[in-house]
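Good morning,

Attaching, inline, the backbone tokens for the sequence recovery test we're adding to the shared suite. The designed sequence is right after.
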């Protein structure tokens, strides 16, 4: 009976050790599962962060290109409007000369009443045309002033885009800082240092 009493206590610690060992194995399997899950999440997060950063960089480059192209087209259009303005000024002077010539012709042929009356009407039409050309010159001047404001607004937009580009660079730095803990984990070496 004494031998049975000594064997029973030895059996209990062996069972307890096996239970602890099996629990440790289950714990290890769960930890490996969570480690694999965390590694998968980290790689997907890294991929998403790279895609977002690449999209932001490409969008900012495309916006800078479009604003530069629009600014160059605006300067070309301003040059054409200035040429048109100078041509309208020349046309106004020519109309004034034509009006003077028609007036002198009307005086010269005042002996013929029908032609004189026609010349008077022509003089009135030319005067109306001169007024129209003057109005066109005023409109062109207003357009020229609007183009100056558009150029100023384009310069302001270029400055804001430069600020946005700086912000994107800062976001890239922040993304690298956020990825620093991942570089020290199982996926170290994935991000450039």
């Amino acid at each position: 009976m004494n031998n049975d009493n000594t064997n029973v206590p030895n059996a209990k610690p062996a069972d307890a050790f096996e239970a602890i060992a099996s629990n440790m194995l289950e714990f290890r399997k769960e930890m490996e599962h969570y480690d694999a899950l965390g590694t998968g999440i980290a790689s997907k997060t890294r991929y998403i962060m790279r895609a977002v950063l690449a999209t932001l960089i490409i969008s900012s480059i495309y916006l800078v290109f479009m604003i530069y192209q629009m600014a160059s087209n605006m300067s070309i259009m301003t040059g054409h409007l200035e040429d048109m303005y100078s041509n309208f000024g020349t046309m106004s002077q020519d109309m004034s000369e034509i009006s003077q010539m028609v007036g002198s012709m009307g005086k010269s042929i005042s002996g013929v009443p029908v032609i004189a009356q026609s010349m008077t009407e022509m003089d009135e039409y030319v005067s109306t045309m001169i007024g129209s050309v003057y109005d066109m010159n005023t409109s062109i001047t207003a357009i020229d002033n609007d183009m100056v404001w558009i150029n100023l607004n384009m310069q302001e937009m270029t400055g804001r885009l430069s600020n946005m580009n700086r912000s994107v660079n800062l976001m890239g730095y922040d993304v690298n800082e956020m990825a620093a803990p991942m570089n020290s984990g199982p996926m170290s070496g994935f991000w450039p240092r």
